[in-house]
From TrEMBL:
Keywords, alphabetical: Methyltransferase, S-adenosyl-L-methionine, Transferase
Name of the protein in its database record: Class I SAM-dependent methyltransferase
CDD domains: AdoMet_MTases
GO terms of biological process kind: methylation
Species for this entry: Actinoallomurus oryzae
Alphabetized GO MF terms: methyltransferase activity
Signal peptide positions (record): none
Annotated InterPro entries: Methyltransf_25, rRNA_Ade_methylase_Trfase_N, SAM-dependent_MTases_sf
Ribosomal RNA adenine methylase transferase N-terminal domain segment(s): 9-137
Protein's UniProt keywords contain Methyltransferase: yes
Keyword S-adenosyl-L-methionine: yes
Length: 170
């Protein structure tokens, strides 16, 4: 993650001072993000994971239990929103699109949405047997992010992942 995922996905992106991470799960990326930004909020749909993160993470990280397709935050709350390998766990493309629209809503004008997700290869499908797996199509991701109100969209397909950035228009 430190040597591959974050340098490639985040690059020289300025996340600002108030970042939201969607779907932190066990908190691997959350721990790394917390050391990079002044204030981090993580929104986790699974209450068990949210409670675990509250116990394990530093006091400066705010953990909120909630659904990323209906975020419990005011408009223009965050300088950046990040998500890493969680979009495929959103149960339908329509809910993924609501997540994108909610991301645009909670971003401040000029704020950035950055992330990555796995590609639907055989191994990826096998490790998700019995789990939600709704892969994001890199070929349609840019238009979906734009339809949600985001601009300056960049989608970079890789063999096993897709990376993306987008901004809320100023």
């Amino acid at each position: 993650m430190r040597t591959d995922l974050f340098p490639v996905v985040l690059g020289d992106v300025d996340l600002g001072d108030d970042v939201l991470e969607l779907g932190p799960g066990l908190g691997v990326t959350t721990r790394e993000l917390a050391g990079r930004v002044p204030h981090l909020t993580a929104l986790e749909v699974d209450e068990t994971y949210a409670e675990r993160l509250r116990r394990e993470l530093e006091p400066g990280v705010t953990i909120v239990h909630g659904d990323a397709s209906a975020m419990p935050f005011p408009d223009a709350s965050f300088t950046a929103v990040a998500c890493f390998t969680m979009l495929h766990h959103v149960s339908t493309p329509e809910l993924q699109d609501r997540l994108f629209a909610e991301t645009c809503r909670v971003l401040r004008p000029g704020g950035v949405f950055v992330g990555s997700d796995g590609r639907a290869g055989l191994l990826f499908r096998l490790i998700h047997l019995g789990d939600t797996l709704v892969p994001v199509d890199p070929g349609t991701l840019a238009s979906r992010l734009e339809a949600a109100g985001l601009a300056d969209v960049r989608v970079t397909p890789k063999p096993k992942r897709v990376h993306f950035t987008a901004r809320r228009p100023a």
